[in-house]
Specification:
Length: 207
């Protein structure tokens, strides 16, 4: 027999409304703001309050976001145009799922460029372990209290963080297998760096 989701009940709209009210009150208690676009809610919270809010979102009977679906880093760029609408260059985004309430939520924490770090949530969701390692590896975001904050995707001794907007497209070094040495060697990049320019398609040329 199939177990019904809360969204299948006749009073699901009332439950959803009460959940939204609870979320607004919970966010306000931590000085966070709740926005909604395309029926997707986003909570923006200061990094000093982030862990406490996330723990409350998991433990509160009115929200019950039991599962962390994803955690990722974001680099909005280091120029003023790219930062339009974003108070800081970096951010960490948490995607949460409430299985019991059939609900989803996005939580955004902005981080300053000169100190992109915040507390780990591994103690709240164990699956955050590798997510935080990935964000550290690719964006250079530090997670205080992480049990094993090592690189995850790049090679040993890799320099830099490849998903940052200022990381060169060609990288800093290239690798190849040296037959004489019998091992992989690293050398300076042999190709000239280039800047990609978006292709402009004019309407008249299409017609």
């Amino acid at each position: 027999m199939t177990t019904l989701s809360p969204a299948d009940h006749s009073d699901s709209k009332d439950q959803q409304q009460s959940g939204e009210d609870a979320l607004a009150g919970l966010a306000a208690s931590f000085g966070a703001a709740v926005t909604s676009e395309f029926d997707e809610r986003t909570v923006i919270v200061d990094r000093d309050e982030a862990v406490a809010l996330l723990r409350s979102l998991r433990d509160s009977s009115a929200t019950r976001f039991e599962q962390l679906i994803d955690l990722c880093g974001v680099d909005y760029g280091d120029d003023s145009a790219a930062l339009r609408g974003h108070p800081e260059r970096f951010a960490v985004v948490y995607h949460l799922l409430s299985v019991s309430r059939n609900d989803r939520l996005r939580v955004v924490v902005y981080l300053p460029e000169d100190n992109p770090r915040l507390k780990s949530v591994v103690n709240i969701w164990a699956c955050a372990n590798w997510y935080e390692r990935e964000a550290f590896d690719l964006f250079g975001i530090l997670f205080d209290g992480h049990p094993d904050l090592r690189r995850l995707l790049t090679d040993y001794g890799f320099i830099g963080h490849p998903m940052r907007k200022d990381f060169p497209l060609s990288g800093h070094v290239e690798m190849r297998f040296d037959e004489k040495k019998g091992r992989v060697v690293y050398e300076p990049v042999s190709i000239d760096p280039r800047v990609t320019v978006p292709r402009v398609i004019r309407q008249e040329s299409v017609e």
